[in-house]
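Input (structure):
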């Protein structure tokens, strides 16, 4: 796609090259950087924005969500949200399920337990018109070319815009939190006094983070004019900030299974952490598992990331998928697919029944686990197949799953453990690989956080893998660790001073052609000058250390004076060293737009100096017209349009 606004240079390039390279034909401006340089700003002078009265963090999880807050005047006192109505047996209710219900005309109806219960009580003839969604957050991780228009599927198979769903959910949390704050303070609490924090997995790519921000704008959580009112926090980073403040009575040391383990109960883990201590945070959630490696820098206790965030889609919903596969094996995929669409509320019921049994799974368990099959499952199966559920179980050759006379699926513990195995194997494999990296040596603690961290099966697997190399620590309120840490992060975002870039980022440029160094097919002759096209100008390399406030500086020049907008394509790669944007590992991942309209300049050659910051949880761009000193509107966009 080429637009009028893009530089004239590429038209010449496209014309003059018989075989344009993929990047050029994709319309990359032929821009020569004037002065590539890295600058290190003084990191201590983090700009202080408007002062907020309260920080509210939203943990928008795959399976459950919640919020917590602290007033800036009492930062030590973190409040977790009020208890929710309608909890599940055997599940603690500080958070609510990430489920949302829309009316048949697609208006927001309810969220969480309320959505689930209302949907459940609808008559099946009615419920098929309502739109019920759960576990939809994973779509942002799994969609390759995420855009503002990405769709989600409701339980009845209908499509809805993901952006609308995320915006509805955030608007719900905004309303709940402001209501609670108003009750606390005895007046209408003003949204402008709130700094909002939304947590996302560290392994999310930039498009998914930007999508969350777009949803926040759409929901009215914050306005586009005031972007710094919202901070995107990374889940394991938040957990890390909270964990290093833990007192010993607030956690369990898996090695000794005691709470105190020989320290005084008021002592900090931070107290037993000394300058330069390294630790790993393993955040095991519903959808993803995120691994972060941090080092403490005392006296201030700033954190430094030692290795780029890693992990994958190995959260606890993997176990639900295995259960679903087991049901398909017993009752047939055709039946399960039909049942989910024809009796969606009963399917939700069945998964809730499975959830509470899943939590009862443990390595030393010997007695079977019973899972209630909803009556409509038994009934619909008989109609669908013409024989009973009991018959299906008898003739299926699935070991360890039997029919109990009370109308339940009876699972032998081995059968339950088998459902956990693929997910836990992924996590262990990932941890093993991480611990083999040279940067990840001498790890003193491994903090296990997130809802899935409560699983004894997972705990045992990690213990077996580490064999005493690090102390495994589990905070008591493991499901709320991220929420509380996100509040602390919102109170002081500069606590994490050094991060590692997850990818290599850069742009395509023209460089002077050097015989013997550059491949001949990249040669372009223009006005008698020999240029090499498609050169990858690296802004930052994967796993490179980057300090907060550090920026990469480049200068760009409009191809002709009348040009209003410079559009520069940003490329990324998993590889550390990249020569050309045409290499197979390189993907176009975003666009940098510099709006130079209204900055007319008498200078013969305008120079737009661009600063890009990679040290934060989101990538930012700023630009200045050097001759006039005026700020140029710069934006960097990672969502494909």
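Output (sequence):
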């Amino acid at each position: 796609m080429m637009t009028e606004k893009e530089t004239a240079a590429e038209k010449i390039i496209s014309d003059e090259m018989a075989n344009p390279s993929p990047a050029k034909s994709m319309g990359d401006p032929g821009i020569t950087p004037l002065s590539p340089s890295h600058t290190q700003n003084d990191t201590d002078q983090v700009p202080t924005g408007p002062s907020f009265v309260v920080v509210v963090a939203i943990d928008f999880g795959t399976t459950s969500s919640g919020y917590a807050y602290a007033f800036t005047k009492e930062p030590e006192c973190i409040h977790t949200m009020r208890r929710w109505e309608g909890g599940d047996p055997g599940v603690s209710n500080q958070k609510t399920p990430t489920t949302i219900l829309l009316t048949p005309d697609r208006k927001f109806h309810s969220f969480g337990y309320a959505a689930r219960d209302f949907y459940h009580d609808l008559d099946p003839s009615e419920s098929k018109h309502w739109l019920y969604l759960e576990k939809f957050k994973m779509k942002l991780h799994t969609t390759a070319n995420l855009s503002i228009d990405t769709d989600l599927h409701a339980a009845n198979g209908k499509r809805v815009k993901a952006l609308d769903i995320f915006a509805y959910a955030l608007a719900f949390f905004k309303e709940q939190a402001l209501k609670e704050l108003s009750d606390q303070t005895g007046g209408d609490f003003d949204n402008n006094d709130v700094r909002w924090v939304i947590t996302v997995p560290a392994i999310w790519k930039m498009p998914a983070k930007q999508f969350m921000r777009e949803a926040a704008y759409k929901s009215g959580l914050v306005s586009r004019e005031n972007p710094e009112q919202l901070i995107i926090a990374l889940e394991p980073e938040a957990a890390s900030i909270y964990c290093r403040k833990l007192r010993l009575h607030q956690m369990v040391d898996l090695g000794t299974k005691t709470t105190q383990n020989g320290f005084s109960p008021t002592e900090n883990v931070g107290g037993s952490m000394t300058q330069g201590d390294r630790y790993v945070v393993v955040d095991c959630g519903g959808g993803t598992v995120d691994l972060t490696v941090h080092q403490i820098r005392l006296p201030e206790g700033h954190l430094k990331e030692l290795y780029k965030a890693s992990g994958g889609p190995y959260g606890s919903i993997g176990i639900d998928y295995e259960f679903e596969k087991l049901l398909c094996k017993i009752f047939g995929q055709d039946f399960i697919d039909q049942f989910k669409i024809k009796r969606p509320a009963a399917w939700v019921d069945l998964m809730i029944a499975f959830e509470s049994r899943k939590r009862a799974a443990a390595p030393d368990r010997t007695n079977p686990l019973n899972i209630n099959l909803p009556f409509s499952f038994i009934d619909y199966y008989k109609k669908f197949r013409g024989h009973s559920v009991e018959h299906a179980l008898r003739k299926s050759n699935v070991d360890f799953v039997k029919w109990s006379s009370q109308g339940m699926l009876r699972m032998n513990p081995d059968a339950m453990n088998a459902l956990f195995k693929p997910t836990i194997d992924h996590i262990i494999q990932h941890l093993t690989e991480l611990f083999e990296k040279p940067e990840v040596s001498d790890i003193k603690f491994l903090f296990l956080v997130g809802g899935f961290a409560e699983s004894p099966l997972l705990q045992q697997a990690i213990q077996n893998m580490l064999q005493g190399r690090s102390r495994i620590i589990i905070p008591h309120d493991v499901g709320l660790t991220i929420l509380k840490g996100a509040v602390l992060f919102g109170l002081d975002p500069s606590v994490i001073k050094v991060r590692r870039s997850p990818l290599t980022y850069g742009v395509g440029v023209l460089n002077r052609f050097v015989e013997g160094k550059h491949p001949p097919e990249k040669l372009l002759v223009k006005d008698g000058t020999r240029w090499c096209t498609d050169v990858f100008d690296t802004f930052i390399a994967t796993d490179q250390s980057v300090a907060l406030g550090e920026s990469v500086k480049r200068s760009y020049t409009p191809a002709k004076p009348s040009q209003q907008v410079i559009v520069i394509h940003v490329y990324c790669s998993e590889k550390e060293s990249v020569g050309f944007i045409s290499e197979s590992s390189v993907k176009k991942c975003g666009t940098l737009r510099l709006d130079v309209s209204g900055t007319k300049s008498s200078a013969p050659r305008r120079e737009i100096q661009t600063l890009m910051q990679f040290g934060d949880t989101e990538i930012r761009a700023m630009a200045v017209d050097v001759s006039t000193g005026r700020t140029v509107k710069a934006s960097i966009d990672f969502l494909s349009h």
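Notes: The first strand starts at residue 37 and ends at 39. The CA atoms of residues 100 and 165 lie 8 Å apart.
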